[in-house]
Amino acid sequence: MTNSSRRSGARTRTRSVATLVTGLALATALTACGDGDDGDDTATDPAASSSSSSDEPTGTPSQSAETPTESSDPDGGAGESIATTGSAGVTEAVVLHGTEAGGSVSEMAFALDTDQARADFASQFDGGFGDVVSQTALQQAQQDPSSTPYAATVAVGCEGPSAVAIDAGEAGFQVVPTIPKTTKQCLAPMTYVVVFAAPNA
Q: Contact, 133 vs 151, CB < 8 A?
């Protein structure tokens, strides 16, 4: 009886160990399968991969660089008509003015009837003011081919002429401006040029 009981207990322990080993192996296999299911599905599901990549921005919108524009003098080259008097018989002239345009004041008018004459007179001015004077004189000649355009730098300062007299003399035309008397001060001096057309003799 004793030997039979021992053999029966040994068989029971052997079966228990075998059952335990089988259970551990099954649990390990299930755990491995579970880890595989929790992984990245993009390898087996192309749609998931394409959807994920399409959600990401492909680029950043370009920002337009603001180019700062250069400030220009709103009064540079601005012209206005002015009634004239004097012995030359000229009744109207154009007064041009530009800020810090330079120039030498002279009452003697210069004939601007050729390209060279216009270029020589314009060379005394700074910036693009000389070009404005040349273009204005050319327009005067084109509007009235029977006359000759003239110009004179009549003032450099804070005030322009309020009236202009154009007299004919032996040396040519003399432009006499009337400049208002004032104590006004300006941040930058203005150059005033009178352009007119005189009838050909």
A: yes
Q: Which pTM was predicted?
A: 0.62
Judged by DSSP in three states, 167 sits in strand
Q: Position of tokens 């007179």?
A: 121
Q: How far apart are CA 25 and CA 32, in angstroms?
A: 11
Q: Alpha helices, DSSP H only, in the chain? A: 2-37, 46-54, 115-122, 129-143
CA nearest to 96, candidates 63, 67, 121, 130: 130
CA gap 99, 192 in Å, rounded: 9
Answer whether residue 63 shows pLDDT above 60: no
Residue of 100, 174, 106, 96 lying closest to 133 (CA atoms): 96
pLDDT at 91: 94
Token pair 């432009």: residue: 175
Tell me the per-residue pLDDT of 1-24, one tens digit each, with 9 for 90 and over.
Answer: 444 444 444 444 444 444 444 555
